[in-house]
Amino acid sequence: xxxxxxxxxxxxxxxxxLLLANSSCSQNPKISKNSAEYQYSEAKKAMSDVKFExxxxxxxxxxxxxxxxxxADRARILRxxxxxxLNEGHANMAEAYISGFEKSIKNAGALRSNAFDYYRxxxxxxxxxxxxxxxxxxxxxxxTPYVLDCEFPSKDFTPxxxxxxxxxxxxxxxxxxxxxxxxxxxxxxxxxxxGFLGAGGDRARARRLLEGGPKPLDHAEFIVMLGRTLxxxxxxxxxxxxxxxxxxxxxxxxSSECAELALKILKDKxxxxxxxxxxxxxxxxxxxxxxxAKTS
Length: 296
Description:
Strand content: under 5%
Helix content: over 70%
Oligomer: single chain
Number of strands: 2
Shape: globular
Largest sheet: 2 strands, antiparallel
Distance between the termini: 105 Å
Number of helices: 11
């Protein structure tokens, strides 16, 4: 009889544990691996793990599979930030090799060849950035809240000593070149992320902003950043050897569109700092237009 009561108690305890476990599962259901939410969480993890190419691929898949979801909107913003960062990193690599080419006779050919390899990578990212910006601007609504939802890369900004050596005319071996590129791409993404968060060059502040969860973006500030990046990218297409007049003009026009839209938004929602940045962008665009008019 005693054993019977003991067994009953054990069974009752087991049933209670099962009920609690089921209750916990129902309150915290597992996210389907085929859902936009799960794939976006994977993109965020890739960002944190410094796997930027993987993060870009995942954002593309989310945009294609779940075009009308809130996670597609977030993926578009994250994709813009990533492409801008990789673009910046490859631009820095290319410029370092060009500087080295100008200083070295012995390694001139190899340095120049490597520089144009990086310019080609930068070009692909710039075109992807342009496409993402074009979609964003065509579908922009000042009534829509836009957020930057990601994790700060686990690696911090790192001085790239190999790039300093390349600028001096030294040709690195393949291992050092690969490491230098990885460092510079991470630095570029951190720089882009910090800028789009409105933290200027304050990486610690940018990290704190992301620790608070998805960061709502100021419309005008974000659009000025788009315009600034487009104008910087535009210079690439005017280079000797990459002289692409159509892209050069299109990037200028899209940057102008950003400046005008930002100034329009600021009329209803004034902000002195953002106003100054928007006006500066517009001034640079007008100066470039005048310069082009004189040379044509």
